[in-house]
Design a protein that fits this description.
Elements: H1 2-102, H2 105-150
Amino acid sequence: MLMKQQHVAIMLKQHVAIMLMKQHVAIMLKQHVVMLMQHVAMLEQQHVAIMLKQHVAMLKQHVAIMLEQHVAMLEQHVAMLEQHVAMLKQHVAIMKQHVAIMLEQHVAIMLEQHVAIMLEQYVAIMLEQHVAIMLEQYVAIMLKQQLLKSKPRV
């Protein structure tokens, strides 16, 4: 009988040891899962950071290219305007000669003043239209950049 009790006691101790071991393994597995999930979260953050850096670099490159193109376009436009002004000056000079030859000095002076006023108004109108067009283009570019910045990043 004593042997039987000792055997049952040993079996109970072994059973308790097994149950404790199972609990220990379960706890260790849960801790390992938590650690793995933390590691995955860290890797995801690193990936997002890398992707954001790449996206920012790409946007900087795009903006630089767009600005270079815009500056080149503005330089061409300025050159065109300078040519146009030179042509207008030549035209004014020709008109002055024609007026001086065809009319008396008084009429020539009056026409010269009139031409100067009209040229000034024409240049003012041209500059006003040019500024309006350039502002529209600038605002459009800025809005596009704002839209690009406000798009959700993946």
